[in-house]
Amino acid sequence: MSLLAKNRNYRLLFSASAISNLGDGVSALAFPWLASLITRDPILIATVAFATRLPWMLFSLPAGVITDRGDRQRLMVMADLLRLLLTAGVVALIVTLPDLPPPSGAGWYIFALSCLAFLLGSAEVVRDNAAQTALPSVVESIDLERANGQIWSIEQIMGSFIGPPLAGFLIAYAVPAPFALDAITFALAAWVVWLITVPPRRAPIKKPLLVEAKEGFSWLWQHPKLLRLAIMLGVSNMLAIMALTILVLFSQEILNLSGFGHGLLLTAGAAGGVIGGLVCPAIVQRVGSERSLQAVLLLFPLMFVVIFLTSNVWVVAAALFVEMFAGLLWNVVTVSYRQRLIPDHLLGRVNSIYRFFGWGLMPVGALLAGLIVTLAEPEMGREFALRLPYAVAGGIAVILAIYGLFRLRL
Fold it and tell me: Based on C-alpha coordinates, what's the Rg of the chain?
């Protein structure tokens, strides 16, 4: 009997992840595309991406303490309801736009959009940390790789395969439409999570917040392999966000894609994620965790180099496919590894510290992308400037691969 069929709680958590990630996938296209309708300035567009990712740097650590102290199910419900309200705020902002692009005041609208994106990202930090921390409570340890692979697959199907092209279609129909759909998905996700019957946890002994955070840091510091994985993930995610931030302009100005076409392009990456989620657990079982991660490090630079060199939409799609497949292979290995290794009473804190290192550099990547394009454009021209972040990311990814091949041991 399949894991989904035999485990009701896992089935509900799986369904909530699917619904919530459909909303995230719609937002992944709708936010940067809305920003590009307001302005063509790479720095301003990067500001929205920066605001979306900044909460992972600021709030990962306190979110871990909150997750270990509180009711993880309730935290997920409250976070999704907050995202419902904030998405309604985005719709209200769009309604106030006099024109697209506005004749003036683009900076004000970008600032307001960035504030809403920041608050949405903050709720996402709490929600995702609680969800990933709750998974070992609803499935057996032996099923973690399979459960993580299935959840990552459905997240890719909904968040990257269905969400972006749907957002492109909706934003062409009416600019507020994708954000209205977002609000509905967050409401449904909150309801499904509320239906889960989570096994009772032993009440944690509450200590001062800094003391609890220090316990998580101390545990991670005593496990240098996990710390090394977190730092390597941080660099990789920084490079991925550099690429993603500029991709919306790269699609429009070099690949000549519409919003719907850009959404379809993103589905190529999603296809890599879907297939990766299904087959990566078997790959890990066959070749082992360490060799799987080494393969990821060798594949990762390819996406950046290929996009830097090409103007062919099919080649770009293939590069996104490979990058997402590699990312899923990395996640299946590392997420299961730390869920199994970290004690339950520390899982929220250590998980959040891990994600602080692993996700905290993403806002830096967003700003770097906009800054590189802005500085390069006067001397090198618009097209080469839009390609340059991919060359920079590719070079750094090669260095990361060399480091990992010599230092990464599980």
Answer: 20
Look at the chain and report how many structural domains it folds into. Answer: 1
Cα–Cα dist 59/51, whole Å? 13
CA distance 344 to 335: 14
In one-letter notation, the amino acid at residue 32 is: P
The reported pLDDT for the residue numbered 56 is 80
Residue 354 lies in a domain: yes
CA distance 78 to 338: 26
pLDDT digits (tens, 9 = 90+) for 235-277: 998 999 899 889 989 998 999 988 778 878 877 877 887 787 7
- 2 part of a folded domain: no
pLDDT tens digits, 158-184: 877 788 778 878 887 888 888 999 899
Cβ pair 186, 49 in contact under 8 A: no
Shortest CA distance to 283 belongs to which of 225, 326, 229?
326
How far is it, in rounded angstroms, from Cα 91 to Cα 362?
A: 26
Cβ proximity of 333 and 293 under 8 Å: yes
* DSSP assignment string, 36-73: HHH---HHHHHHHHHHHHHHHHHSHHHHHHHHHHS-HH
Residue 38 belongs to a domain: yes
Q: Please give the DSSP secondary-structure letter assigned to residue 195.
A: T
For residue 7, give every residue at least 6 positions away whose Cβ sits within 8 Å of its Cβ, in sequence order, or none: 138, 139
Note the pTM of the prediction, 2 decimals.
0.75
Tell me the DSSP string of 117-176.
Answer: HHHHHHHHHHHHHHHHHHHHHHS-GGGHHHHHHHHHHHHHIIIIIIHHHHHHHHHHH-TT
Rounded to 5 degrees, φ, ψ at 251 are -65, -45
Distance CA 357, CA 359 (A): 6
Is there a contact between 67 and 129 (Cβ–Cβ < 8 Å)?
yes
- Is 213 among the domain residues? yes
Length of the chain: 410
Output the domain CATH number for residue 367.
1.20.1250.20
Return contacts of 284-287, CB within 8 angstroms, 24+ apart: 284/145, 284/329, 284/332, 284/333, 285/145
Determine the residue type at 2: S
Residue 72's domain comprises 8-407
